[in-house]
Design brief:
The protein is an all-alpha fold. The chain contains three helices and no strands. The protein has one domain. Helix 1 packs antiparallel against helix 2, helix 1 packs parallel to helix 3 and helix 2 runs antiparallel to helix 3. The longest helix has 31 residues.
Length: 103
């Protein structure tokens, strides 16, 4: 069996990390700067798009890992880390219900 690289797990981690950075920048632009609303909205939409792709890649990678036995420990750890980052970002940057009635 040829050696495989944990590309799906790495992609999940990279996409989720990029989503967190973009969502944080969008929230910063929305609440703490005088930039136009369009910049913040664009950043938030891009961040949520990246987060959605991270979730899709994580799900497909998990499906592949469940079919392939034995799964490499490093790949499982990277996938779990990426999935935790996706869940944490989705919980931290809620899409609705935050910030209403402030300012």
């Amino acid at each position: 069996m040829p050696a495989t690289r944990p590309l799906g797990a790495l992609a999940t981690l990279a996409l989720a990390g990029a989503a967190v950075v973009v969502l944080a920048a969008g929230e910063f632009a929305w609440t703490r700067t005088d930039t136009g609303e369009g910049v913040a909205v664009l950043a938030l939409l891009l961040g949520w798009t990246l987060l959605a792709w991270a979730a899709l890649v994580a799900a497909s990678t998990a499906a592949v890992l469940l079919r392939r036995r034995p799964a490499r420990a490093a790949e499982v750890v990277l996938l779990v880390a990426g999935t935790v980052l996706v869940v944490a970002a989705a919980a931290w940057f809620l899409p609705v219900g935050t910030g209403s009635g402030t300012g």
